[in-house]
Amino acid sequence: MPTCRLPRPTRSAVISLPPGAAGCRLGPFDLLIDALGARSPLSSDPRRELPFGALWVTRPWPMDVYFPADALEQRYRRADRMAGVMPSGAEEEGGAPTATYFWSLPLRDHDRWQRSALADWKQEAIALWPETESLLAPLETHEDLSLARYRHRTHEQPAKGRLVHVGDSWHAASPQLGQGANMALLDAWALSRALRDQPRDAASVAGRYLKMRRGHVRLYQAMSRMFTPVYQSHSRLLPLLRDWIAAPLMQWPPAPRLLAGMVSGAYGRPLHTLALLDDN
Ligand SMILES: Cc1cc2nc3c(=O)[nH]c(=O)nc-3n(C[C@H](O)[C@H](O)[C@H](O)COP(=O)(O)OP(=O)(O)OC[C@H]3O[C@@H](n4cnc5c(N)ncnc54)[C@H](O)[C@@H]3O)c2cc1C
């Protein structure tokens, strides 16, 4: 196998492969970091997609109705219909604020949705949440919305030899707990700490990295697997338990604090493990 001639690494040490590089040998490298996300070809199967995905669209922030500028809001019918609106910043610094709307959809219904009239879907979506009318009214074609597919996968060997996985390439999940970006950042921080603390060889860096992150990743992957069907599934029982038992209980201390801890990624004390927070 021929050896590739590599361009000089840029300041960020990201190496872009020259055209025709496929099929030739690269390296050796001290460490290879897979940060290619949920569809990384370097990460393992199973690549099973979750049965529900979502249609997404980002629009100028609506001025005619009130949506909280600092929170994500959702409306449900059981767990098989769900719409959400969240603030999504501005396209450029100082630019106009935007809102992102999403509509939960079973993947198996996507073809049918594309073949049906957009106006019919808009009517259904607005009936579920009338305040979203001004966000949806300007949509003209199905192509105005993008379909996001979710997958749940924990790569069994997040570090092997000189290869380490960070973020979704290690642990992909549905976005219900909203922790994917946080987890990826914590992985990156942990790896940078491991590189600083144990630069002897790849094995000791990987060992230190996994020690800092494995417990937290396992905990959140398990919680994500457990809670996703409460928000996206055809279950009749789970949404009943959610609305009639969990929701009233969540009003009482210490439940709000526990819930906030869960959806801010604090369970498992990851910031303490990474020495990002003092114990007191
Ligand atoms: C619809 C949706 C909503 C979400 N909502 C939330 C949320 O509210 N909160 C939250 O925390 N998380 C959310 N997530 C999850 C979050 O986006 C991910 O967990 C997070 O982006 C993972 O970061 P990452 O760096 O591991 O991967 P990614 O952000 O996927 O980055 C991987 C990068 O690698 C690049 N790449 C892939 N293959 C190649 C290649 N062959 N060559 C070069 N580049 C390549 C990709 O283009 C991409 O830029 C959501 C995800 C989706 C799909």
Word description of this protein:
The chain is of the alpha+beta class and 280 residues long. 34% of the residues lie in helices and 18% in strands. Strands 3-4-5-2-6 form a five-stranded antiparallel beta sheet, with no helix packed on it. Helix 4 packs antiparallel against helix 5. It starts with 31 loop residues before the first strand and ends in a 7-residue tail after the last helix. The chain binds flavin-adenine dinucleotide (FAD). Flavin-adenine dinucleotide is lined by residues 35-37, 56, 148, 167-169, 175, 178-182, 184.
Task: List descriptors.
alpha+beta; binds flavin-adenine dinucleotide; 3-stranded mixed sheet; FAD/NAD(P)-binding domain; 5-stranded antiparallel sheet; 280 residues; 8 helices; 10 strands; 18% strand; single chain
Record the SSE blueprint.
Blueprint: E1 32-34, E2 52-60, E3 73-77, E4 81-90, E5 97-106, H1 110-115, H2 118-128, H3 133-136, E6 146-148, E7 153-154, E8 159-160, E9 163-165, E10 171-172, H4 180-197, H5 202-231, H6 237-249, H7 255-263, H8 270-273
The chain binds flavin-adenine dinucleotide.
Flavin-adenine dinucleotide binds at residues 35-37, 56, 148, 167-169, 175, 178-182, 184.
Relative strand content: 15-25%
How much helix, percentage-wise, in residues? 25-40%
CATH superfamily of the largest domain: FAD/NAD(P)-binding domain
The CATH class of the largest domain turns out to be Alpha Beta
Q: Rg from C-alpha positions? A: 22 Å
Estimate the mean pLDDT confidence: 90
| Ligand inventory | flavin-adenine dinucleotide
Question: What's the order of the H and E elements?
Answer: EEEEEHHHEEEEEHHHHH
Task: Please state how the strands of the largest beta sheet are arranged side by side.
Answer: 3-4-5-2-6
The number of domains is 2
The general outline is: globular
| Poorly predicted segments | none
Through-space gap between termini = 57 Å
User: What is the name of the CATH architecture of the largest domain?
Assistant: 3-Layer(bba) Sandwich
Task: Write down how many β-strands occur, each being a DSSP E stretch of 2 or more residues.
Answer: 10
**CATH structural fold name of the largest domain:** FAD/NAD(P)-binding domain
Structural class, from secondary structure content?
Answer: alpha+beta
